[in-house]
Write a structure and sequence with these properties.
about 300 residues; alpha/beta; eight-stranded mixed β-sheet
Length: about 300
């Protein structure tokens, strides 16, 4: 980790600007917890329905943090993320408050233009720094901020772990802390697997091969079920709503992983819905119209929550 496509580090936001228009993306450089310099991609679009409410000083702000999969770079994903923002801008939610959406893509260390070398411990520092930057940038003095963590493939495991770590920093009895930290209202798991250990058995199903038994020596060990169990320890009001978005023809992750995560969420009383995008391969779920509609509907439901 990582595996990057050829020329991935040379790609720029300008390469995809025309395809993303009218969504505008900008690159933001921040320092991770250990001072490693990483890149964020921040996308915004002025929702058409906000013009009607231009005099309103109070607006709900949904900030979506996107965690990419492996073997990828952020710029090629931006057109598809832009399509989600365009869809959100055209169809207002049912809430009485004007809603603004901002999408923040996190480029982990070692990916795209971010410095450093990737590792689970390092990436977790990067996610913590990105969350801190978001809260410091958008949340001061505002209480109507909602966060959604969206992870694709291995990014889904990263999102689950990030949500568990974030929620653990806020005590149920600490009213001051709850006001300072925006709520993680949603957890969007796109083509997720239950854990890296379980993927070893998927990739190497033959019991006579040694690889499936080498999980104790893995450098990366993200476990979505373990993180969801930690999330379930918070109060019911503090638990994020989960959407599991699966690819109907996923060539990498078996369908059973999504089904298992859905069943586990129900077991620990986390609100969950699952959507399978017919015909989609592993990286195509959000690019298909069916997937885009499911994501847009889900994010509107998040905005409608009080």
């Amino acid at each position: 980790m990582p595996f990057l496509p050829p020329n991935a580090r040379e790609e720029t936001l300008a390469d995809y600007a025309r395809r993303c228009s009218p969504v505008e993306w900008r690159e933001q450089r921040i320092r991770s917890v250990d001072e490693t310099e990483i890149a964020l991609c921040i996308g915004t679009i002025e929702p058409s329905h906000l013009k009607v409410n231009a005099q309103s000083k109070i607006r709900k702000h949904v900030i979506i943090l996107y965690f990419q999969g492996n073997a990828s770079s952020l710029p090629p994903r931006l057109p598809y993320l832009a399509d989600i923002l365009k869809s959100l801008s055209k169809a207002p939610s049912h809430t009485q408050q004007p809603v603004e959406y901002t999408l923040v893509g996190v480029s982990y260390r070692g990916f795209w233009t971010s410095k450093g070398r990737p590792s689970q411990s390092g990436i977790e520092l990067d996610i913590a720094a990105a969350l801190k930057w978001v809260t410091n940038t958008y949340a001061p003095g505002k209480e109507d901020i909602q966060l959604v963590l969206w992870g694709q493939s291995i990014g889904a495991g990263i999102a689950c772990s990030a949500a568990a770590a974030y929620l653990s920093t806020t005590s149920d009895n600490d009213q001051i802390s709850r006001k300072v930290q925006p709520k993680i209202a949603g957890l969007l798991l796109e083509t997720p697997f239950t854990s890296i250990r379980s993927m070893l058995a998927t990739i190497y199903p033959q019991k006579w091969l040694p690889y499936r038994y080498l999980w104790p020596f893995l450098r990366n060990w993200w476990d979505s079920k373990l993180a969801l169990r930690e999330i379930a320890q918070t109060t019911a009001q503090g638990r994020p709503r989960v959407l599991i978005l699966q690819a109907g023809q996923d060539e990498l992750v078996p369908r059973e992983h999504g089904l298992e995560l859905e069943a586990f969420c129900k077991e620990v009383e986390i609100v969950v819905e699952r959507k399978e995008v017919a015909g989609a391969l592993h990286t195509e779920s959000m690019a298909r119209g069916e997937g885009q509609s499911a994501i847009t509907r889900y994010l509107h439901n998040i905005a409608d929550e009080q």
